[in-house]
Design a protein that fits this description.
This protein has about 475 residues and is an alpha+beta fold. About 35% of the residues lie in helices and about 20% in strands. Strands 5, 8, 9, 10, 11, 12, 13, 14 and 15 form a nine-stranded mixed beta sheet that branches. A seven-stranded mixed beta sheet has the order 3-4-2-1-18-16-17, with helices on both faces. The termini are far apart.
Length: about 475
């Protein structure tokens, strides 16, 4: 199968907007609206410091932004759970077994006197609650202003553009028959069947079917595709959990977490579903929702992307009535396990923000690495922290040549979507473009660099001609 097309509209503006971490107005980033995107291109973008929120893909301007955001990943194959993470897994298991919210309250950490036990329990509780309450909303909040800008785009224009792409046949190789899709969905279900066992530790499983358990926990992995029948079937229940979470944990108003916001933020994805031909199990890649069901009821949803090298966590929301289960930590552990089941080497946790203390919890999944914003090399987080204690922005590099980005783009490989068709780069075409398009492309080349060779960027020359006529 041919590689699906990646079509983007790039936004060169870099206006400071509100920051979800320091609450200031100095957050800076550049971004693009992804109409369609292959999983391979998105994997490459992640490895260059990008991240998506719905269909909007953005990259912080690291040297200038108020709170630098470093891409962080955990080596799933070598994951070593901390004592706190082990306690969370045990706490969930005990709840399922005994059915009591306070089932682990009397369990004492080994090797500590009563005073130390109380202090440790208090610190664990604080850490787990902080993780669960703060790990999701803040990460997406710095793109709220950009999201509003995207909503200001002409929706009819976007629909016309995408329909035009379909009519031209640019997308004909990205979809399979409905019957084939259903068969492939079953293969995904085999990895995490709807009746998957819960774990009492990270390396062993425990049966949930026996009478000794008070509750049953199930995992259900479904495509985040609004046209998918299974997604539609569970949409309302999943949305109600999201709404309850946003209003209770993040104090959103009801109109700030309506269904349109939910669909745009957590259901819409530019990723085209592809099968990983290199994997023995033909893993389906793309955007997914992982439901956590307690006695048949959804209590948490992990929004994630399955990509060629990783499982990338996008967002988590859960029923606040089950906050005592530390679901933020627990679902992260399960997503790390999913990496192993699917043969993905890494678990991407989004951005690590050292300047924001409440976002440092991501560094507690060992072993983790941070991405250098200049060389794009990965560095063990324990070697990065001393630098970040002294400076908000750092390259983590000792070699002076690696402290600045090297440009590797071959501009002759760039493609444009112009006047209803995909057109390859040519000097004549580039020279004929308007000043506005030339300025946009200069910023696009600067930020995307080598990745621009694998994407098609939309040029709006016809629109600019209309604006010029209006001005005259």
């Amino acid at each position: 199968m041919n590689e699906p097309i990646t079509l983007v509209s790039f936004f060169p503006e870099e206006t400071p907007h509100s920051c979800g971490y320091c609450k200031g107005e100095g957050s800076l980033s550049k971004g693009m609206w992804a109409h369609f995107m292959s999983v391979g291109v998105y994997q490459n973008l992640l490895d260059k410091g990008w991240r998506r929120s719905g269909r909007y893909v953005y990259k912080p301007t690291m040297e200038k932004t108020c709170c630098p955001q470093y891409t962080i990943r955990c080596e799933a194959e070598k994951y070593k759970p901390s004592k706190t993470q082990k306690r969370v897994a045990k706490k969930v298991r005990n709840f399922l077994l005994r059915g009591s919210k306070k089932s682990t309250q009397n369990e004492e950490p080994e090797g500590k006197n009563p005073t130390e036990k109380a202090a440790a329990a208090n610190e664990d509780s604080k850490a787990e609650n902080k993780t669960d309450k703060e790990e999701s909303k803040e990460e997406g909040s710095d793109v709220v202003d950009m999201d509003k800008k995207i909503l200001g785009l002409k929706k009819a224009k976007i629909r016309r553009l995408e329909k035009r792409m379909e009519k031209k046949g640019y997308l004909k190789d990205t979809n399979k028959s409905v019957a084939d899709q259903k068969n492939k969905e079953k293969s995904i279900g085999e990895y995490l069947p709807s009746l998957q066992n819960c774990t009492d530790s990270l390396n062993s499983s425990v049966s949930q079917g026996g009478e000794e358990f008070k509750h049953k926990l199930e995992l259900r992995l479904i495509r985040a595709d609004q046209k998918d029948p299974q997604f539609q079937q569970h949409f309302q229940e999943s949305y109600e959990v999201y709404k309850k979470y946003q209003m209770s944990i993040h104090k959103d108003k009801e109109d700030e977490c309506d269904q349109n916001t939910y669909r745009r933020f957590l259901c819409a994805s530019p990723l085209k579903y592809q099968h990983d031909a290199s994997s023995k199990d033909d893993v389906l890649m793309g955007a997914f929702h992982q439901h956590y069901l307690l006695d048949g009821k959804i209590i948490a949803v992990g929004v994630l992307d399955i990509l060629p090298d990783c499982v990338s966590s996008v967002y988590l929301y859960y029923d606040p009535d089950y906050s005592h289960l530390s679901l933020g930590t627990y679902t992260a552990i399960r997503e790390l396990q999913l990496c192993g089941v699917l043969g993905r080497k890494h678990y991407y946790m989004g951005f690590y923000i050292h300047s924001c203390h409440k976002m440092r919890y991501k560094g507690k999944y060992y072993p983790s690495e941070l991405l250098s914003p200049t060389s794009f090399n990965w560095h063990p987080i324990e070697k990065c922290l001393p630098f970040l204690d002294q400076h908000k922005f750092h390259t983590f590099e000792k070699d002076a040549e690696l402290m600045t980005r090297k440009k590797t783009l071959d501009v002759t490989e760039v493609k444009f979507f112009l006047f209803g068709a995909i057109r390859p780069y040519s000097p004549g075409l580039a020279e004929s473009l308007s000043r506005k398009s030339k300025a946009m492309l200069a910023a696009y080349y600067e930020v995307c660099d080598k990745n621009a060779e694998n994407m098609v960027v939309v040029l709006n020359e016809d629109e600019e001609e209309e604006e010029s006529s209006d001005d005259e």
